[in-house]
Prior knowledge:
Distance between the termini: 23 Å
Radius of gyration: 15 Å
Number of domains: 1
CATH topology: Ribosomal Protein S5, domain 2
Mean pLDDT: 90
Amino acid sequence: MKVMKKATSASAPGKLMLLGEHAVVYNRPCLMTAINQRMHAAVEMLDIPELQLEAAEVNVTGYRKSLRDIGQGDIPKGATFIETALRNLSEKYPLEHGIRVTTSSEISTEFGFGSSSASTVCALKAISELFDLHLSVGPR
Length: 140
């Protein structure tokens, strides 16, 4: 992995499903829109081989795990999405540096506005920029 920066950040909007919310469970379409509230992730490269996560909005503070153990063992509920996404990313792009992820949210976690997916997307986007991975969303 090529390191371009020591730190970066990204954000992603929340979402609102207008019609067909349950249909997606059966791989059917739904009508949705972005909302004007965002999740933010600041990502820093570390010299030690570990994931550090600060996500106060989901009661995760001071979370640390060795990179070799990400995705394994006990994972707090609020860390699950980012840690799992980082494990999946590291299978294709082995991590040579530790990462500190700090999230902050304008999105309520109580109303189903997609805060979990927004935190995953913005964290991965920031990690992509940090390591110059050129990740994108598009046809498979």
